[in-house]
Specification:
By secondary structure, the protein is an alpha+beta fold. It has helices spanning 7-23, 26-39, 43-54, 73-87, 98-104, 107-118, 244-257, 259-277, 283-288, 290-318, 326-349, 367-374, 377-380, 385-395; strands at 124-127, 143-147, 150-158, 168-174, 185-191, 197-203, 221-233, 237-238. Bound molecules: flavin-adenine dinucleotide (FAD).
Length: 413
């Protein structure tokens, strides 16, 4: 495996960095952070997004046939790294939705959704979790009943992040009422503006007080989505009916290995180092303390491992190979690093680092306190670390399966 980036990829990184220096103002950064609570994007933020789009960076690794740039997954990795680090923005062509449509969609679905995703006219949210099943996705009850040339959908989804801004939901449903577990599940691509769809906010710990834009775990809102006799044509089906389990796996794995995932887990180490290098009160003594220097170095080494694990997965995907245990191993190590790191930071900086914004004694607008509160969520969402460990035990170490239930977790955001 050779992780050296190509000269043209390094040029791409420099171009993006120059663009960000020139175009991303503090107020646009704030507007982008604010948009996640459902206020929509400001004109300045929309203009910034349009400029990203005009440069082709929203679909850097997607096929040219559908309007992408046809570049490598490493080029996409660079785009994702730069925009996430600068503005917490997911840009670069990863995520559920489009990659799964490229892999399993019909020509018509690709032609409809891929160019629209590149223009950002189509944005998917992920409709997997339900109130009674998160890890155990095979327990999905949301039902789609086929009548003639349409499906009628009834059920509820929960923790549907960005449903308030999304144009479509990537919806996992049970199409065969007699089926159990993985069989009989299907994926439907459902417009969010159809009659019968209700989105209700679920506010997170990050909502009150609102996390600062610089916090790495800063999602103040996720949602409940109710589907009440929602009708879609059968052409909304992605892949074959009943094959939904297989259809989602690739998208989920790609979501687990994107640059954004590892950055979420390591950016607070960088916050700490920047803080220790600043002239904030008390930092001079802390940065001279050998125990602090040891800890910071240890965290930095772990952060490099997180990045290398992601690059290994990118390399596997670039070669067209299937993931075995790699995405799962990464989904254990990086989120747990995030928890170790936020706890260490809290000890190094002391009690003030646990104060949220609003307190006169909070450090850096409460960013460390928000990260401490939020780090745990990454160990649960998108496939919990317990379940990912089980997959590593089975797939990397060939250990026997413990029960049928442990096989069932595939998940997600
Ligand atoms: C901020 C946030 C955003 C999210 N966004 C989305 C989204 O956009 N779309 C979406 O569909 N979902 C989303 N989720 C939901 C997320 O995927 C689920 O929370 C996650 O899958 C866990 O499911 P659960 O909450 O039902 O917990 P449970 O499944 O009840 O799990 C609780 C605990 O039990 C453990 N556990 C469960 N089963 C096993 C097992 N077989 N072996 C070992 N341990 C086990 C888990 O590891 C976990 O620690 C989001 C969640 C959060 C927190």
């Amino acid at each position: 495996m050779d992780f050296a980036l190509l000269p043209e990829d390094l040029v791409l990184r420099r171009e993006i960095q120059a663009f960000i220096r020139e175009e991303l103002t503090e107020s646009i950064r704030q507007d982008l952070a604010e948009a996640v609570v459902g206020v929509g994007y400001s004109p300045a933020a929309l203009e910034f997004l349009a400029k990203i789009r005009a440069r082709g960076w929203t679909a850097v690794s997607w096929p040219t046939q559908y309007g992408g740039q046809g570049r490598s997954r490493f080029a996409q990795f660079i785009v994702e790294e730069e925009f996430h680090r600068a503005a917490g923005l997911g840009v670069g062509g990863g995520g559920t939705g489009a990659p799964a449509i490229l892999a399993a969609g019909t020509d018509e679905q690709r032609e409809t959704f891929i160019p629209a995703s590149i223009r950002m006219d189509t944005v998917f949210c992920q409709g997997y979790s339900e109130p009674h099943c998160g890890t155990d996705l095979a327990g999905i009850r949301c039902r789609a009943t086929r009548t003639g040339d349409k499906y009628v959908i009834n059920g509820q989804k929960i923790y549907t992040t960005n449903a308030q801004n999304a144009t479509h939901i990537f919806l996992m449903v049970r199409t065969d009422p007699a089926s159990t577990r993985h069989a009989g599940l299907s994926v439907l691509l459902v417009p969010m503006d159809l009659p019968g769809i209700t989105v209700r906010p679920l506010w997170t710990l990050q909502h009150e007080p609102r996390s600062p834009a610089t916090a790495t775990y800063a999602e103040p809102r996720t949602n409940e989505v109710f589907l009440d006799n929602v009708e879609v044509p059968v052409s909304a089906l992605l892949g074959a009916e009943g094959d939904g389990w297989r259809v989602v796996q690739r998208g989920l794995n790609l979501d687990r290995v994107g640059a954004r995932r590892y950055l979420i887990s390591i950016m607070r180490d960088e916050d700490l180092v920047n803080h220790l290098k600043s002239d904030a009160p008390g930092t001079a003594e802390k940065r001279a303390d050998p125990r602090v220097r040891d800890k910071v170095a240890e965290l930095w080494i772990e952060a490099q491992v997180c990045r290398l694990m992601t690059m290994r997965s990118v390399s596997i995907d670039e070669q067209g190979l299937e993931f075995n245990y790699e995405a799962s191993a990464e989904k254990v190590f990086a989120p747990e690093h995030g928890v170790r790191s936020t706890e260490a930071i809290s000890q190094i900086l002391g009690p003030s680092a646990q104060l949220l914004n609003g307190s006169p004694y909070a450090i850096d607008d409460g960013v460390f306190a928000h990260n401490l509160l939020g780090a745990f969520q990454s160990t649960v969402n998108h496939g919990s670390v317990q379940v990912m460990r089980d997959q590593v035990a089975r797939k990397a170490l060939n250990m026997p399966r413990v029960s049928n239930k442990s096989e069932s977790s595939g998940n997600k955001k």
